[in-house]
Amino acid sequence: MLYYLIVCRSLTYAQRTAAALERAGITARVLRSPKSISGEGCSHSVKISQRNLPDSLRILQRVGLTPKRVYITAGDGSYQEVAL
Amino acid sequence: MIYLDSAATTMQKPAAVATAAAWAINHLASPGRGGHWPAMASAEKAFACRETAAQLFHVKDPERVVFTFNATHGLNIAIKTLARPGSRVVISGYEHNAVTRPLHALKVDIRVARGALFDQKAVLAAFRRELDKGADLAVCTHVSNVFGFVLPIEGIAALCRVRGIPLIIDASQSAGCVPVDFTGLGAAFIAMPGHKGLYGPQGTGLLLCGVDPAPLLEGGTGSESRQQAMPDFLPDRLEAGTHNVTGIAGLLEGLRFVNNMGVENIAAQETKLIQNMGKGLRGIPGITVFQAEDPDVQTGVLSFCIKGRDCEEVGEILGSRGVALRAGLHCAPLAHETVGTLETGTLRASVSAFNTGQEIDRFLQIVQELCAAKG
């Protein structure tokens, strides 16, 4: 199943992001970013389902939260960055 | 025991505080340091604590709620971010050593805005005078830890805002006891302990950050690990090393208790107790009571002296009779200098939401007996 990972600058930021999405009825889970996309080292991401990306980005913009980067899972288990 | 030392630590806590802390010891790991359940559950606990504190103190962004070990830790971060050697820093005449010692260590030019006890107008006028002479920073306690005097912090904050002078507020005696509005005050920083009016465990504190701070400690944060510089975002910038998760779990329950009870209700209850205590003490010959005529300018902290008696010795005697209060200078020699009690010190009784009128009556009876025995 395909899903998006919203990479956040900190754990707390990821938690704020997930909380904002959950409040809007979008299932969101905080997890450690896969090493291949973690950038400067350790980071946290928010996992959302494929169908929820447009709504999620709209909600995050409304509450003033900016994703650092967004990735989508590829069929081979790798991640591809999504241009926002 | 009649516990009247809540200005130091509220020892009687809501039952949920100990339950949560005990549970955390065996169930919660390091937040942000793993993807497993105990680490993620720990992170959720920390986030819930930040969000609850943000709500209570009107902080728009929970990332600006930083965990510290106590208020002193937070004040050191705040002061060392904003003060430099030679900076002109205006403080009130009621500051604790947690403020004055870091300032002395930095060799700043300290200017004391001194005003008479319980006279908010005089304190405000003194701040205006000193700030108008030019200042790089102002640091002010919200409530005196010795006398329970509520300083006119809204007015002082307004004076600072108009002049563009950053303000650090020591909310050690006000957080959970009187309303604290971070956004409304527009302070650079507000530091507070978790173990007093917020009913959390010792070893907890919060620093509310209105400006970008400089780290006091460097180390692991679970973020941007390849970078050798500390992260430039909060709260990670100030939270190097493993969190006091046990304490944070307890603090969350303390914050929930304060939220549920209501700060205004807690304040009203404590004021009533302290008013009755003051009235009773004033009726005992030989006792000087430092009590405000206007109950709105004093919290649940009251100092008194017994004529001809050493305050430390009286404190010892009261302790042996089941009364826990504090004697001496209370780590605030400046406050005693302002009021004129530097040589004698005072006995300080301080209440919490868990004290009762019966306890105050019994306390007064014990003091009366002690004074009568001496007479």
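The two ends of chain B are 26 Å apart (CA to CA).
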